[in-house]
Design goal:
Elements lengths: L2 H5 L16 H4 L23 H7 L5 E3 L6 H11 L5 H16 L1 H8 L3 E5 L4 H7 L4 H13 L2 E2 L3 E3 L11 H7 L4 E3 L10 E9 L3 H13 L4 E9 L3
Parallel strand pairs: 1-7, 2-3, 2-6, 6-7
Antiparallel strand pairs: 4-5
Bound molecules: zinc ion (ZN) (2 copies).
C-alpha cells in the first residue's frame, strides 16, 4: 500500500467504504453502454460503424467502444481523473476497458495479430503546458497499451490551440477542427493495420471522427477504432 493511501484512503464514491473508488459491491452497478453504431446510434454488434453510415456519410471511424454507460457515480470517478489529477483512477478504469475489449471479438482478434497501436487525441502544447499540465486521454492510452501489451505512439500534433469542443455547436465543432492536425513520427504507420484511438468522455464523436478522417486521408487502409470511457447524454 502506498503511503498516500494511508493518509488519504480511497473511498467508494457510492457508499463511502474505504479501499477503492468503487467497492466490490457497488462495482456491480457499472454497466457497459449499449452496442451502437457511432454514426446513426442504432444497435450495431461490437460497436462497429454500420454499412449504411459507411457508404452514405463517409464516416471515417470504423467503430467505437463504449465500456461504460453514463452514470452519476462514473462521472464522479472521471472528475477525479480530469480535475483532481488522481492518476490511479486510470488503473481502475482501464481494467474495465480491457475486459470490454476482450469481450469485443472484432477488436480483440485484431489486437492478437500484433499490428495494432494505441494513440490518443493530442492537445496543443500551449494547453498541455500552461492550461492543464497533463492530457488524460494520453494517460488512458498509455495504460491501455501497457495492459494490452501493444505499442502506444503519438503520430499526430495539434498545430492550433482550438476552443473546447464542449462549448460549441455541431457546425462550429467541425469548423473548429479543420486543418489543426499534422503528422509527426509517422513512420510506424506504414506497418500498422489498426489504430485504437482513445478519448475520455464525449458528447459527439466529431473530434475522433475528424482525426480518423485526417489519418485516412493519407493512410486509407488503416482501420481506426475509437475507445471512449462513456457517452454523455445517452
Ligand atoms: Zn460502495
Ligand atoms: Zn450507422
Amino acid at each position: 500500500m502506498n503511503i498516500l493511501d494511508l493518509i488519504f484512503p480511497k473511498k467508494c464514491v457510492w457508499c463511502g467504504e474505504t479501499g477503492d473508488y468503487l467497492c466490490k459491491n457497488c462495482k456491480k452497478n457499472l454497466q457497459p453502454h449499449m452496442e451502437i453504431c457511432p454514426c446513426c446510434h442504432r444497435y450495431s454488434k461490437d460497436y462497429l460503424t454500420c454499412v449504411d453510415c459507411k457508404s452514405m456519410w463517409n464516416f471515417a471511424l470504423d467503430g467505437i467502444l463504449i465500456p461504460f454507460s453514463y452514470s452519476w457515480f462514473l462521472k464522479k470517478i472521471i472528475l477525479k481523473l480530469k480535475y483532481y489529477h488522481k492518476r490511479d483512477v486510470v488503473d481502475f478504469l482501464i481494467d474495465r476497458v480491457c475486459l470490454a475489449i476482450y469481450a469485443n471479438h472484432t477488436l480483440s482478434s485484431k489486437i492478437e495479430k500484433w499490428n495494432v497501436i494505441v494513440s490518443w487525441i493530442p492537445s496543443h502544447w500551449y494547453r498541455k503546458y500552461f492550461v492543464k499540465w497533463y492530457n488524460q486521454s494520453y494517460l488512458l492510452a498509455q495504460n491501455l497499451a501497457k495492459k494490452l501489451n501493444v505499442q502506444y505512439w503519438e503520430f499526430l500534433k495539434k498545430t492550433k490551440n482550438t476552443k473546447s469542443q464542449a462549448t460549441l455547436d455541431r457546425e462550429w465543432r467541425l469548423k473548429n477542427l479543420k486543418n489543426v492536425f499534422c503528422f509527426q513520427n509517422e513512420k510506424i504507420l506504414g506497418n500498422v493495420q489498426t489504430i485504437v484511438l482513445v478519448d475520455d468522455v464525449t458528447t459527439t464523436w466529431s473530434t475522433l471522427n475528424e482525426v480518423a478522417k485526417f489519418i485516412k486521408s493519407k493512410y486509407p487502409k488503416i482501420c481506426i477504432r475509437g475507445v471512449v470511457l462513456c457517452r454523455k447524454n445517452s
